[in-house]
Write a structure and sequence with these properties.
By secondary structure, the chain is mostly beta strands. The chain has one domain. 7% of the residues lie in helices and 42% in strands. It is built from four helices and 18 strands. Strand 6 and strand 7 (127-144) form a beta hairpin. It is elongated, with a radius of gyration of 24 Å.
Length: 418
């Protein structure tokens, strides 16, 4: 037997590489470094060359409650505040949380910890500005919150009183705050989400005295809905900020399958010509969608790179795990140029700058197949608003629609939360 040096061991089959990984990235070293100094730090990374599987339920997940970010909000809140959070697996198609629930795995590849150091070369002025935990890639789903309408694994509570937020759930409401009162989940989140969305919206509006029914969709729906299918161009939106509680989808291009003015014998002289015009010229349009984050009961993260959670005392643009811009050949990803929706982050080796406090970076997150179970009654719509649907400045706002994004149970047996 003869002792070998580490260099000699690394040349032997089965010993190449290491279980533990470490790395250093100098200030502004990577391509596409942002202006303003948010990447002017020394980054030190420590990790493991492993894949970690987990399945976990958290009744209340809160980070950053109080502190400097309280100055940014009108009421006390947390940087991240989520009720009933479950980490679980995803189905093979990457379109839903796994039906196996507690027997499925949320996968984290090459987990690591990273530090951002300011004035690294000065022993007297050196300081830790921030730290993050993450992985090269994750694959799984997050199941979130509670649904008080009697679906999604949690039966209707007594008198439908929302136990997390108060207020009474109106099961008959199709839009607005009465819909939000039926849900708990993501109360606030600070971070950057590069979302892929798809939705099929059936709405009813009163336009110039006509009760018009509109069947529209955007993104790739599976199964096909109203002109959208799995081959339709995906729809992407970047959402980011501190303590956000609303997703605002502006200028969503809608495929308009049908506009039905519900003409009758009594108004045929005016209605039928208008119906012919609607049928002939309107096959697409633009609208806006506002969704309170409490309505979102699952997030999909199929093979998502650069997922991390960080804490920083000043804005930090953290390096991508690969130290390179995001790949440009991933199907249904906003950085794939074939979809024509790339943004500045797609040409940078750094993630979008993380604000002070706790921050979640989750590019590639998906909320698919939003399909309201009922036709949405959006009330009176002016002629100007109706005409604006023909351009990207479309002013028709669908406020908190009743959508069908049900929480997936992640508990064994009869437990309602583990």
């Amino acid at each position: 037997m003869e002792a070998l040096l580490d260099e000699e061991l690394s040349n032997i089959s089965g010993q190449d590489g290491s279980l533990f990984l470490s790395d250093h990235i100098a200030p502004g070293e990577l391509s596409g470094a942002p202006a303003g100094g948010s990447a002017n730090f020394d980054f030190y990374r420590m990790g493991m060359d492993v894949k970690m599987n987990l399945n976990m339920n958290i009744a209340k997940f809160q980070l950053g409650c109080g502190g400097v970010n309280d100055l940014l909000t009108t009421s006390p809140a947390c940087d991240i505040d989520i009720d009933y959070l479950s980490f679980m697996g995803i189905n093979n198609a990457g379109t839903l949380p796994s039906a196996d629930g507690p027997d499925s795995a949320f996968e984290l590849l090459r987990p690591y910890v990273e530090l951002a150091i300011k004035n690294a070369s000065s022993p007297t002025m050196r300081e830790v500005v921030g730290f993050k935990v993450g992985g090269q890639k994750i694959n799984g789903a997050l199941s979130i919150g509670r649904d008080y309408t009697g679906v999604g694994g949690y039966g209707a509570e007594a008198n439908l009183v929302n136990q997390e937020h108060g207020g009474t759930c109106d099961t008959g409401a199709t839009v607005g705050q009465d819909v939000v009162n039926c849900h708990s989940g993501i109360n606030s989140v600070s971070g950057f989400l590069a979302l892929e969305l798809s939705a099929a919206i059936r709405a009813r509006a009163n336009i110039l005295g006509f009760n018009a029914d509109l069947d529209t969709c955007f993104g790739r729906m599976n199964p096909s809905k109203y002109g959208c299918n799995s081959g339709t161009t995906p729809f992407f939106v970047d959402a980011g900020g501190t303590r956000i509680s609303t997703l605002h989808v502006a200028a969503a291009k809608l495929n308009v399958n049908n506009i039905d003015l519900n003409c009758s014998f009594w108004n045929w002289a005016v209605c039928y010509p208008a119906q012919l015009i609607a049928n002939g010229i309107v096959d697409e349009g633009y609208g806006q969608l506002v969704i309170d984050t409490r309505l979102v009961h699952y997030l999909l993260t199929p093979d998502t790179e650069n997922f991390f959670l960080s804490l920083q005392r000043e804005p930090v643009s953290w390096p991508n795990y690969s130290k390179a811009p995001p790949p440009s050949n991933v199907a249904f990803d906003s950085c794939n140029p074939v979809y024509g929706q790339s943004t500045d982050r797609c040409s940078s080796g750094y993630a979008p700058a993380a604000n002070t406090g706790w921050w979640l970076n989750a590019p590639g997150v998906k909320i698919l197949n939003i399909d309201p179970p009922q036709r949405l009654n959006i009330g009176n719509v002016s002629a100007g608003t109706a005409l604006s649907l023909l351009g990207p400045e479309g002013r028709l706002i669908i406020d908190n629609p009743k959508i069908d994004l049900r929480r997936v149970d992640n508990c064994h047996g009869a437990a309602i939360f583990c």
